[in-house]
Inverse folding.
């Protein structure tokens, strides 16, 4: 831990008093320590959000703080892990901005009942938030990208495209736009993720870069083809909600919008009924190959809109 | 994991192939997973370094990358933990800078034999590096700030003041200055830290903000007074090395220079001989009180130079 954090550590500790039962030494020392229960694995992921890159300059820093935590937790959902702790680095241009970001961060920690186990706060010419999240999962139960197999169905939990529509509204100056909350308020699919673990689902990813690009990560890692049917896309609630944009724009938002934090996963056919009852949407299936194909009326169609890629 | 990392993930994976025996799922999925051996606790710390704040703008980014890793590992040394994994967020203004920082990061991972278990890479108006480090320690063995007791001696492992002297040389344009390597090449006291664990030492901190300020953290957390004898300070090798600066400047460098990454710890008197043989330096002792006092010729002296404090 960096001692620069001391200045606001009290504020944080008062407002995030939660300590996970595994924690032996919590926030306030050089590091935190945790005892992992037998039969469980530790799951860790880290994520950074930068002002002007991951959220617009004129958006509230409390919202940015909340988003940073929720987005990081989405990576745990993708693995099937239950969140336990997080470690935070806040880079702030001044103390006011620090307080604003902190406000949203505390809110998210409380909402998701995650322990703030450590962190540092540093001055920086740019506001940015790094969140490392840790969670627990039963041994050998973690869902991975490389576990899709041919004939698995491809499924979705959550909305796609609405976040991109919200960001566009914000950037167009419609700060009260209907879709803006879908960009601002990330809801990691943590409960849905536990349902998948209960069903012994093996392959999952969270959609941060866009449905097609993240499906591509599964296809490549698992060495399967992923067939997504436009007919299924058109049945998504998101499709109806975005229909005023016109077919082409709706598809673009849904297939490559990004920042959806929905879960894309594959499952054996036997789970079809259960998954539908749980509120998941079937998008297609896995076949031979190692890339993603869109299908309409039984035919493969060309589609080359890629998701967001830094340094691309 | 953020998929933006994919662009250089291969580079990293090729050059940091090491996987810790605990790791079940390594770099390349949404998160990494690890199985903690029975009888051990997980130890985690996070740290951020920002260009122009934590290292000078005109310093090599490979050096900055190396420093960021080593500084983070120093927090594990402070707890007595053995490093196992790290998770990385690189914020880079362009691909060239990203490559430069990566170079130093890879070098440090190799040197310290730590697994790069995940991370992301994002564009940012400011170059910055966040490192979360994880390690293992036997149950209930971690050294803490709040374990100092009255009559403990106060000890130091490592140099103090040389890093500050090196930074000053750099800022004065003496880029080949004798002390510059002490600022650039951080050597976390990992082996010394294990010696302390072997001796069942209970209280330790790493000196990042300056000797006096970090001693203050122990004093406050442990509710003991910490008496540091100037006579002992004058016996430090660092004192001799800096003597050309004149007494006042030497003291300033040693007592509040910062970024030393030395270990300050307290130990019962019975360990005096062993600790001296291990190369530690005795600085003073713990007494009643809750703050730090400098002593010369048996009398308390005034000294009010504080360490570096962001947002202070």
């Amino acid at each position: 831990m960096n001692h620069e954090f001391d200045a606001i550590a009290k504020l944080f500790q008062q407002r995030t008093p939660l300590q996970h039962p595994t924690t032996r030494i919590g926030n306030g020392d050089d590091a935190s320590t945790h005892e992992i229960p037998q039969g469980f694995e530790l799951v860790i992921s880290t994520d950074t959000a930068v002002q002007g890159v991951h959220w617009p300059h004129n958006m509230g820093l409390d919202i940015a703080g909340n988003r940073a935590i929720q987005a990081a937790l989405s990576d745990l959902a993708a693995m099937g892990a239950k969140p336990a702790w997080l470690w935070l680095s806040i880079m702030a241009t001044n103390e006011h901005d620090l307080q604003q970001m902190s406000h949203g961060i505390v809110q998210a920690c409380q909402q998701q009942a995650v322990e703030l186990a450590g962190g540092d706060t540093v001055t920086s010419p740019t506001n940015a938030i790094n969140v490392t999240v840790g969670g627990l999962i039963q041994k050998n139960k973690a869902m991975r990208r490389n576990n899709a197999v041919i004939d698995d169905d491809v499924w979705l939990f959550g909305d796609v495209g609405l976040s991109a529509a919200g960001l566009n509204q914000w950037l167009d100056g419609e700060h009260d736009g209907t879709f803006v909350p879908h960009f601002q308020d990330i809801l990691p699919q943590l409960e849905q993720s536990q349902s998948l673990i209960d069903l012994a689902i093996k392959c999952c990813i969270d959609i941060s870069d866009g449905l097609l690009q993240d499906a591509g990560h599964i296809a490549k890692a698992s060495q399967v083809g992923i067939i997504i049917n436009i007919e299924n896309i058109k049945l998504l609630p998101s499709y109806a909600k975005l229909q005023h944009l016109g077919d082409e724009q709706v598809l673009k938002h849904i297939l490559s919008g990004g920042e959806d934090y929905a879960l894309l996963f594959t499952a054996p056919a036997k789970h079809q009924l259960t998954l539908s009852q749980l509120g998941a949407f079937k998008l297609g299936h896995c076949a031979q190959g190692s890339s993603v194909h869109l299908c309409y009326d039984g035919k493969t169609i060309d589609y080359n809109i890629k998701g967001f890629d830094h340094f691309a």
